Fold this sequence. Notes:
Aminopeptidase, 8-stranded mixed β-sheet, 188 residues, globular, alpha+beta
Amino acid sequence: MSRCESVDFATLPVHRLDFSAPPPAEGFRPLRPEFSTCWKKGRVLREVGANLAGCWYLAPQGNLAAYINLLADRLTLELPVLEGEGIRYRTFPAVKIGLLAADHRAKGAGAALMRWAFLYTVRELCPRLGARFLTVDAVHDPDDGYDLADYYARFGFQHASADTQPKSGEHFSTMFFDLKPLIEAAVV
């Protein structure tokens, strides 16, 4: 992607999607074409407009390189993971990464948005919502060998189920990240 060569995405400002001036998506080429379609056909704008999600993006030189949607979620786990803290719940409030899409030529853009999402969630959303977990439904498409579980695992996400493969008929596996260590570090 010539417009993103030598761009350090970690230093770019992350913009909140604004209806009056969304960045152009011409030339936006994520590995999964449906992520481009979600942007170009207005799904992302409709969800933001309906107050179902928030969307943030990176746009060097005004061209869309990557976007991320965050929304409210509920994490249900098979085992009581917080039992050591005296909490026996198995369902918890969470913040979900609804969509994370990056142009495959914009190396580092997705990772930059992930790091931003961790910080934003810990600093802005968790104190207001009481959420403790960040979740994602990692896309798994065996027909074309596309599986994002390893990508999210590199950031510390764990599978919500003991079975790490998607259930029959599903093309995703739910994963979660416990934000408590980041929340505690932010308070100090």
